[in-house]
């Protein structure tokens, strides 16, 4: 709900504006004035979030009033309502969120509220930005804002313990579960001793960077308090778990998630306890690329399709479906040289790393692509 003040020097129009504005469930009219000076003197008392201003008014006009209001509080949103288009440039110089031409309508009010809500969500998200950022996709990294803290973990187990706590997303982990997972070869007393020492090292390491009181003991277990932490793996997983059909509106988000995936969970660490999650995230990365592929092909954006498929093959060079899709991209690009070179690279990597031949469907596709290009005279 936005608290609003309305300023209009003609009383009948003011009354009509109040009626229309009050019909919107997100607006609450807390003040109405026919005088700019009277409105200005009451702004500090009423503390509105939104003001609807007529432009042409005697004495102080709406543009001047808006400047004074924003001097008092730049966060108050200004909407101009006028019969004249000529003031639009001046209006937007004071960062008006909308410029409505009279007669005012419910549709214009609704459109304005939609803008207010969108801007409010962005502001709220900005306020909620986490102080620390943990990047798990690829090598483990910890940032404060945009600054890489470049943490030097005192022991491999200290890093693994931190990674394990992140993996459990702030849940309490029973201390004996921690002992069994991280020191399975030790007897209970030795494992517990190692756990206490590693917890101490982890707390001390984080404290050096001003990160205090996040490793917490509770209900005979330990957890990490993630209130001040952003984690790339959490954002990525949330997106792939709620994936929607790709379109012009969400392609940017798809590409952001594809870029976010820098590699396997925790890089080359391959912690046994994290293999299931690692595999889930890696498979979903493949799905994202393959979901985006038809969209790029429909848009004839072959370069982007090539770029994304090559990223996938860097992560999993043995994905023959991805190799086949890349063959199709080169066919539609009409690039015989890339088509042939890529096919030979695939043949070599499969022979060298797995000692197997290219599967028949890939051979058939390659042959058809080459023959079709030759028939169409598209040899490059």
UniProtKB/TrEMBL annotation:
Modified positions (4-aspartylphosphate) in chain numbering: 54
This protein's name: Stage 0 sporulation protein A homolog
Entry function: May play the central regulatory role in sporulation. It may be an element of the effector pathway responsible for the activation of sporulation genes in response to nutritional stress. Spo0A may act in concert with spo0H (a sigma factor) to control the expression of some genes that are critical to the sporulation process.
Gene encoding the protein: yehT
Domain of life: Bacteria
GO molecular function: DNA binding
GO BP: any one term: phosphorelay signal transduction system
Organism of this sequence: Clostridium homopropionicum DSM 5847
Extent of the signal sequence: none
Phosphoprotein found in the keyword field: yes
Keywords: DNA-binding, Phosphoprotein
Domain Response regulatory: 3-117
InterPro entries per UniProt: AfsR-DnrI-RedD_regulator (IPR051677), BTAD (IPR005158), CheY-like_superfamily (IPR011006), Sig_transdc_resp-reg_C-effctor (IPR016032), Sig_transdc_resp-reg_receiver (IPR001789), TPR-like_helical_dom_sf (IPR011990), WH-like_DNA-bd_sf (IPR036388)
């Amino acid at each position: 709900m936005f608290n609003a003040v309305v300023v209009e020097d003609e009383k009948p129009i003011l009354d009509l504006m109040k009626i229309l504005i009050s019909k919107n469930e997100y607006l609450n009219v807390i003040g109405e004035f026919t005088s700019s000076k009277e409105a200005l003197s009451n702004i500090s008392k009423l503390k509105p979030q939104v003001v609807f201003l007529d432009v042409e008014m005697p004495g102080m006009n709406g543009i001047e009033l808006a400047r004074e209001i924003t001097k008092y509080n730049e966060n108050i949103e200004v909407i101009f309502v006028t019969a004249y288009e000529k003031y639009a440039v001046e209006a937007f110089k004071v960062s008006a969120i909308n410029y409505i031409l009279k007669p005012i309508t419910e549709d214009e009010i609704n459109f304005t509220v939609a803008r207010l809500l969108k801007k409010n969500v962005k502001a709220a998200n900005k306020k909620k930005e986490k102080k620390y950022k943990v990047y798990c996709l690829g090598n483990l990294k910890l940032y404060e804002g945009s600054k890489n803290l470049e943490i030097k973990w005192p022991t491999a187990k200290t890093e693994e313990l931190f990674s394990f706590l992140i993996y459990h997303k702030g849940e309490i982990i029973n201390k004996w579960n921690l002992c069994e997972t991280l020191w399975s070869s030790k007897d209970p007393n030795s494992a517990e001793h190692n756990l206490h020492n590693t917890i101490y090292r982890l707390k001390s390491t984080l404290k050096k960077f001003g990160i205090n009181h996040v490793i917490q003991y509770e209900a005979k277990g330990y957890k990490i308090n993630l209130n001040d932490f952003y984690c790339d793996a959490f954002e990525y997983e949330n997106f792939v778990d709620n994936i929607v059909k790709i379109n012009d509106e969400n392609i940017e988000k798809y590409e952001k998630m594809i870029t976010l995936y820098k590699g396997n969970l925790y890089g080359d660490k391959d912690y046994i306890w994290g293999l299931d999650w690692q595999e889930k995230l890696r498979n979903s990365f493949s799905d994202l690329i393959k979901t985006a592929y038809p969209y790029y092909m429909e848009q004839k954006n072959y370069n982007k399709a090539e770029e994304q498929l090559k990223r996938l093959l860097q992560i999993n060079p043995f994905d023959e479906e991805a190799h086949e899709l890349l063959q199709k991209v080169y066919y539609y690009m009409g690039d015989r040289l890339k088509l042939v070179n890529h096919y030979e690279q695939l043949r070599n990597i499969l022979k060298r790393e797995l000692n197997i031949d290219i599967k028949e469907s890939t051979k058939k596709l390659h042959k058809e692509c080459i023959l079709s290009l030759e028939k169409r005279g598209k040899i490059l």
